[in-house]
Amino acid sequence: xxxxxxxxNNRLKENNPVxxxxxxxxxxxxGLVFQIERSIRGMRAxxxxxxxxxxxxxxxxxxxxKDPVVVDNLEQLESALASNYFCITDNPEIICMAQGxxxxxxxxxxxxxxxxxxxxxxDHGKHVILMNAELDATVxxxxxxxxxxxDVIISNCDGDQPGVIMNLLRYxxxxxxxxxxxxxxxxxxxxxxxxDTQKSYAEKFRQKPRMxxxxxxxTKISFEMAVVANATGFKCAxxxxxxxxxxxxxQAAHLFPLDEMLEHGLVDYILGADPPGVFVLGYNDSPxxxxxxxxxxxxxxxxxVFYIPYHLPSIEAPLTAARAVLFNDASITPLAGPVCEVIxxxxxxxxxxxxxxxxxxxxxxxxxxxxxxxxxxxxxxMGLSRGCWLKRDIKKDQAITYHDVHVPEGRLxxxxxxxxxxxxxxxxxxxxxxxxxxxxGFASNQAQV
Length: 449
What we know:
Blueprint: H1 2-13, E1 18-23, H2 27-39, E2 43-49, H3 53-62, E3 69-70, H4 74-82, E4 87-89, H5 92-97, E5 103-106, H6 112-123, E6 127-130, H7 133-150, E7 154-156, H8 161-174, E8 178-186, H9 199-204, H10 209-216, H11 219-232, H12 258-264, E9 266-271, E10 278-283, H13 287-295, E11 303-308, H14 313-327, E12 340-346, E13 364-370, H15 371-376, E14 389-390, E15 405-406, H16 412-423
Parallel strand pairs: 1-2, 1-5, 2-4, 3-4, 5-6, 6-7, 8-9
Antiparallel strand pairs: 8-10, 10-11, 12-13, 14-15
Helix pairs in contact: 2-3, 2-14, 6-7, 7-11, 7-16, 8-11
């Protein structure tokens, strides 16, 4: 943070702020605009896209900015940016293409739409920051391949749990402890929650019922921990993770299998613990280190609990944009191929002919599974489940496979996942039977994956 604030202050003095384009003016997108314009020196939220342009205007209004310029095409946008106007548009492509924008922040929670935005932005030399764990967990590794070829950063964000976990993990490693578990802290887990049960809570915080349903039913935490798994190489100990209950996060050191943590590292969570936030278990069995850690009230070891008692997504996320532009550094990004995947489980009895309603809906919830198992059982990724229609009846709590569904034609998310499977050598014959790997022509200035 000391480095970031100094660098941003320098950009302010040079009258050369980091210029951010924001895709999506929902709850998180509005928060980004407010935070950047009211609190982050040396940065500007110069353009906002939303399908309903009035929502983009409202995002600026909340930040105290009146009368942003409505732009429809690239020429209008670049002209307005050159004159230091704030811009709103219902054309996301021009934000990806425009000179005068350094970095895109994607905050829609969509899959196909967001993937297309990422590819276009990277193809035009822009860094991409995701407030979209759903996309990252589903096709993040292949998007990272495109980012590397374009020589740009793609990263999930500071402030949301994956970014906070990764920052903490890097700290734990830096001070000499081996990170062996990356953990989330969850207050509630009920896989059968739905938009009706969550309606009043959503209204209270001005969020969408589907979004808060994905929090309550465990789907969101599964996506978040898939992002962490793919960034660390850590696995889940079992389908859905352990998720033990405990009173305080300090108890977490003794709740997980040490042999598995030492063998390959784990991603997991604790339920009902205080305080909320994230934690990392670090291991050091040096007698000298253990003496010092005991003296510093960290316990007798060799497993130590490090935690952060909060996460502040829209408040901290702009720092990720600064890291990418100023230091070419990602908060959290895939190491290589996918390690874990979020699979689709029936939330209720489903019938042949039903069309799955996707993340945060009435039909299904997502749980974390190791990628070899997901591939071996041909399981349907939760991020690609919406719009699939069932060939046969599915029992409550049954995992849904590709053999159980018809997949809609022409979806970018499906094509990218197929590329991901082939690129990383993940048994492509078992994924989405009958589909061939297309040459889709994205990233025109880059070699195809």
